[in-house]
Amino acid sequence: MKPERAIDVSTDGQTMTIRVPLKLRRIGGRKRVVSPPGATAWMPPRPEINSPLLHALVRAFHWQSLLDDGHHASVNELAKTHGMNASYVAAILRLTLLAPDIVEAILDGRQPPTIQLQPLMRSGIPVAWEEQRGALN
To answer: What is the reported pTM?
Structure first.
């Protein structure tokens, strides 16, 4: 069996076929093209805002400021005021423990596609920033 070449030119020289190895993968509910391991990118990735994650991050810092300023005495009171479950509010508030560079990457849309809100809420976030970087990249 003959190995496939990346570029084939027809015998008359009029047609060129280019094969590009890629994989489609569902990330965050969207299909994405994933390059094979070791492939070099021909252009830098576009920033892509992860809206649910960004919204939760903004909400977490807002809620934390409400707690810090004394507008609410506890997470339970905050949750009751906003008509939410206290465990959900606590899970969102844990996003304030993210390392500053990870927060900045999320705000700029530069976060790795592996960082998604639901897995962060389910598995929790390591407290040490170095551990976060290792776990989230």
So the answer is: 0.67
